[in-house]
């Protein structure tokens, strides 16, 4: 009975690893197209927000490539620490660029023109990226992969940037409020710094040890605990008794 349960658990983990690789590949493919389109549209409209969004997509690709590299190994956990560092650095790079670009816009770096292609790009990203982020986060939680959860946050941050870009382009086109997206972008930069620090420390909320993976309620309890629920939810998470207390995650 125990051997059968262990076999099902190993099979499920293999499925989740393949799913994470597929989602990372989908993220890379979409962001390559998005980056090219945003940089092209930004150049036409002289829009620093669109150009910044396109460069953000390049950073998204770097994060997804790092995740793909990790899960291409026979033992992905051995590469987890390095992958977390890469994701953290990508967050910091994103925050730095967004902040500099926002300050440049606020200091009169140029007024962007109306961009219908930019509005379409931002709207599509606002629809697609939340779905990719949710799928990544769900698989990462069940597998217990901090890197998959961290990369899902990177994808979710792209959703926020998409909303900021869309609002800025629409307000600029309709009301002439050129400063709107720059102000909101500074908030996004602060969020990126926080997420980068969490990824660097390995504090990916809702990434739990991949034991008893069929128990979705256990995973949800862990995620609820990260949000500050009652401590009894901690008891629902099965312990991995094969690890010594002084051992950290690899």
Q: Quick summary of this structure?
A:
This protein has 250 residues and is mainly α. It has helices at 2-45, 48-71, 80-106, 116-143, 146-174, 180-201, 216-226. Helix 4 (116-143) runs antiparallel to helix 5 (146-174).
Topology:
Blueprint: H1 2-45, H2 48-71, H3 80-106, H4 116-143, H5 146-174, H6 180-201, H7 216-226
Helix pairs in contact: 1-2, 1-4, 2-3, 2-5, 3-5, 3-6, 4-5, 5-6
Oligomer: single chain
Largest sheet: none
CATH topology descriptor: Alpha-lytic protease prodomain-like
Assign a percent range to the helix content.
over 70%
Protein described:
- The relative contact order is 0.14.
- The protein has one domain (2-207): Alpha-lytic protease prodomain-like, CATH 1.20.1510.10.
- The protein has helices spanning 2-45, 48-71, 80-106, 116-143, 146-174, 180-201, 216-226.
- It is mainly α and 250 residues long.
- It is elongated and about 55 Å long.
- Residues 205-250 have low confidence and may be disordered.
Q: Keyphrases for this structure?
A:
250 residues; 0% strand; disordered C terminus; 74% helix; mainly alpha
């Amino acid at each position: 009975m125990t051997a059968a349960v262990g076999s099902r658990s190993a099979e499920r983990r293999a499925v989740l690893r393949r799913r994470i690789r597929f989602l990372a590949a989908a993220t890379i493919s979409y962001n390559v197209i998005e980056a090219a389109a945003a940089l092209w549209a930004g150049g036409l409209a002289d829009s620093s927000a669109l150009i910044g969004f396109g460069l953000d997509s390049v950073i998204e690709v770097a994060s997804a490539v790092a995740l793909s590299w990790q899960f291409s190994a026979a033992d992905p956990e051995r590469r987890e620490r390095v992958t977390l560092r890469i994701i953290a650095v990508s967050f910091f790079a994103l925050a730095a660029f967004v902040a500099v670009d926002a300050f440049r816009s606020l200091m009169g770096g140029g007024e962007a023109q109306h961009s219908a292609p930019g509005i379409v790009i931002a709207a599509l990203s606002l629809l697609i990226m939340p779905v990719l982020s949710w799928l990544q986060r769900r698989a990462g939680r069940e597998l217990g992969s901090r890197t998959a959860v961290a990369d899902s946050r990177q994808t979710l941050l792209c959703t926020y940037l998409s909303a900021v870009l869309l609002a800025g382009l629409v307000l600029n086109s309709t009301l002439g409020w050129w400063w709107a997206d720059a102000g909101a972008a500074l908030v996004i930069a602060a969020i990126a710094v926080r997420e980068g620090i969490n990824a660097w420390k390995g504090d990916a909320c809702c990434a739990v040890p991949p034991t008893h993976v069929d128990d979705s309620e256990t995973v949800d309890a862990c995620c609820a605990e990260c949000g500050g629920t009652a401590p009894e939810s901690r008891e629902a998470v099965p312990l991995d008794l094969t690890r010594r207390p002084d051992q950290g995650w690899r």
